[in-house]
Amino acid sequence: MGNQDRAANAVRPHMGIPLWRFPHFDLTASTIMEEARPKYAASSFAQRLRRGASGFGERLRPHWDKRWFRWIAIGFGGLLLAYALFWLVFARGLPDAATLLEYEPPLPTIVRDTNGQPVHSYARERRVQLQYSDYPPLLIRAYLSAEDKTFFEHHGVDIPGFIGAVFDYATKIGSGQRARGGSTITQQVAKNLLIGDEYSPTRKVKEMILAYRMEGVLSKQQILELYLNQIFLGRNAYGVQAAARAYFDKDVADLKLHEMAYLAILPKGPANYRPESPTGHERALERRDWALGEMYKNGWITEAQRNEAQAQPLGTVAAHGSSFDARAGGYYMEEVRRRLIQLFGEKAEDGPNSVYAGGLWVRSPYDPKIQDLTTTALRNGLLRFDAGKGWSGPVARIDMDRGWKRELAASYIDVDYAGWRVAVIVSRDSSAAQIGFSDGSTGTLPAGAAQLPYRKTGSPAFAAMKPGDLIVVARNGPSWALRNVPEVSGGMVVEETHSGRVRAMQGGFDNRLSSYNRATQAMRQPGSTIKPFVYAAALDNGMTPASIIVDGPLCVYQGAGLGQKCFRNFTGGSAGPQTMRWGVEQSRNLMTVRAASQTGMDRVVRTIKAMGIGDYQPYLSFALGAGETTVERMVNAYAMLANQGRQLSPKLMDYVQDRRGKVIWPLRWRACDGCNMANWDGKPMPRFGFEGRQVMNPMTAYQVVHIAEGVIQRGTATVLADLKRPLFGKTGTTNGPTNVWFVGGSPDIVAGVYIGYDQPRSLGGWAQGGRVAAPIWKAAMTPVLETMPKTPFIAPAGIRMVTIDRRSGKRVYGVWPTDEPKPAVIWEAFKPESEPRRSIRKEEVAAQDKAAARIEATVQRRQRTDSDFLQDQGGIY
Known about the structure:
Layout: H1 3-11, H2 29-35, H3 40-64, H4 67-91, E1 109-112, E2 118-122, E3 126-127, H5 137-147, H6 159-171, H7 185-195, H8 201-217, H9 220-230, E4 237-238, H10 240-248, H11 257-265, H12 278-297, H13 303-310, H14 331-344, E5 361-363, H15 368-386, E6 396-397, H16 404-411, E7 421-428, E8 432-436, E9 442-446, H17 461-464, E10 469-476, E11 479-483, E12 489-496, E13 502-506, H18 531-539, E14 548-551, E15 554-557, E16 564-567, E17 576-579, H19 580-585, H20 589-599, H21 601-610, H22 631-642, E18 655-657, E19 663-665, H23 698-714, E20 728-733, E21 739-745, E22 749-756, H24 769-786, E23 800-805, E24 811-812, E25 825-830, E26 839-840, H25 842-862, H26 866-873
Parallel strand pairs: 1-5, 3-4, 24-26
Antiparallel strand pairs: 1-2, 5-18, 6-10, 7-8, 7-10, 8-9, 10-11, 12-13, 12-22, 14-17, 15-16, 18-19, 20-21, 21-22, 23-25
Helix pairs in contact: 5-11, 5-12, 7-8, 7-9, 11-12, 12-13, 15-24, 18-20, 18-21, 18-23
């Protein structure tokens, strides 16, 4: 080997091939040095490609001269180009068919009541998801006969059907007519779930591609299950089960052959076969009979079955909404919906467990019976209070220029009370008005049936009505008569004391007239219902129920800006030193202010905050209920008192399950194993522990409850005394009075109610919590309490029950309390070592009781309402 060979091999030793074997290389020293540079590898690789290509071309040149070879090469290249173009136009960007393995159709959320019965649903599409095995085989054959009889034979595309569809499309180009589909069931699933319903040849080709892919991923049964659960069949029904309910009010397992055949013809166009229209009814019968004939041709039914089914009428029921009563729950179910949306979102885009697509199952403590009692009691109370005040005006207005039928139906304004209906004034003359209803029907409102005085003008209501006004009417013979929706409103909540479960909630007269929930959204001054928590702070800081508090004038320095403020009790009189119990029972404001001042308002507002009522500043005004809170919060706070000071949260939902039954809320939920056993197995019974933390001393909570029992027995809520059972509670009346309250209950259940205008104004000087709110509470809760045992309030460990003189608070020996409404001697609850040490003899009790009775009678003669006092004082700021 010469020097040139060694130089070449030195430069390219890795090649293993000496460069002298390639005589076309110029192996000069300059060439070798140039190739030794870093770009050597890249340049030599390019050269080799060029050499390889030229060599390949040289080898193909003899074949290219042959005609047959050129045609094969051009054809192969054309196929590659066509495939590339096809992929770019049709297949690129198509969704993965494998995603259908995890597809979950949008399902409504169902709410169950305390008994486990479904009572409400949140849905925008009526759909029920079933498994393939849930559908009767004959129903499946009906759909195959009508839609795709070769479904189990093809691989996603029916070639003869596709060719026929292409020919039909070509003949109708430019005519404006839509060509027949020719799609298989697999293609329809691809269209509905993956690519949409765009009308174009491109979409049809994409359908075919996806259908072919789907057949390689899903079984035939899985594809049919998707189809039968997803297909739209009219009447807002998606899926065959929903359609069976919508058209025949049956489940799929209960359908007859002629009903199956009718449902099988609907996918092609439900609007064409509407049984409500004569034309649609005729088309439906004709097409149904055709489907039965196809089933017979395919050998899936006998001739006798076909003839019998064809002789049947359609048998559809009238169109109706959801199978759930939309009126059930009202404000309660709307509040559940709000809270579910906060937890899981509203639409499918918000997550897999959204309210309107996630298929949630919600177990709630909602009790239909208690809800009906609560709703009726509050409505009747509002009507009773509003009676005689005249017509409050139209409930709303609509734009008549846009068509009153459509506008009224779209308003969703309705009322559910004693046969009342919402109507629109269509036209009016001097003698009568033509009114229209949401179903399109009309009626007549005579002028004589609308003579209530209009509150704003004093003139008859009929004269104030204008076309477009929405009013409430009731049937009056052949015509209609005007009814008035109370302008005053209110809210009521019923809650269990041991768990916080809300059994009923009413947030106004009717949630379809106003969705504003006054039980949870209306911030109102609680008035004297706050006082038990003021006294709870005092009991935690050295006072006892027998502590003497002066019921007399009180002056407070409110700072340099406000100066000194002196308060008086009602008309200026006072009862002098009295026990704390007496001050709560008689709702004495000055005693409450004095107790709060002695205790310290910082301690008072901490107690109020700990009970979940509100976060207030340490001003004395809040001791008389000047802060704002809701009915729900107040009821929950009273429930915590009855629960011996243990924390509760108002529960409108016990737990939430996803569509597969897994509990997804609350996060730490655990099932109670063995709680539903038919018979006791001899093992220890399940025991539930306390959920919340202790937010108030249990002895303090019991003392407050024990004192508040006196409010029912001889205080401001004696209207409830005739129930003759252990009850506690407190009335409330705010400045104006703008709101009247009552909150209270038994050891097991607590309820609260308030009445007031949405735009706060005076209810009238006679309005008081004991006169207005307490009777509503009584009407709602009496039937509920009658189903419960008369359980006394249980004192916690450490409480000492001591006999005392009711008026003086002194300890009494030798005398037992009686069942009289106002006994001289009562049992009082004390914490250890806090009971009175002094005592009086029983012969002194009678004399003191007589003197106290004289004082009490004098006070009652001079006493005005709490609202009068607050009004005189301009509040207590």
